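Risk register update: the risk of archive-format incompatibility is retired. Evidence:
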Amino acid sequence: MATKEKTTSRQGSVSPAFANAIKSYLDGRAKNDELFAASYAKPGKNIDECCNYILQEVRASGRAGFADEEIYGMAVHYYDEDSIKDIKPLGAERVVVNHTIELSESEKEEMRQQALQDFKSEQLSALRKQEKEREEKERLAREARIKKQKEKAEKMKGTQLSLFDM
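Archived output:
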């Protein structure tokens, strides 16, 4: 029951999420099915080409939605059939992988706490930024007042004051 590690090139033809979903299924199948493990280890077969084969089959069918079992069946067929070779990438295809991740209650609570902590940190950072901006504005205003007072004092240094100047 030896399984061969498949390498993927990711030349933009297959999304990583789609390829990972297919690879994960095939790895599990090869682990539990010795006959398929032999097909899965065939030289010249790889995940990228398998995914491109699936996309070709989907496009040729004209349908927009498939059950997981149908897609996995196409993947198994690709590895089982020796006549399927040299599959070319189709280009930009949009594939939606509809697998969901179920979290335990403790994981959900941990995620809530992390989100709350992140929110608090963001708000605190924003408040600190506002405080620094306010302090900078006050400093500039204070410097401007001092400069104005110095200029006024310099101007008045050489002039004689009369009662009417006050």
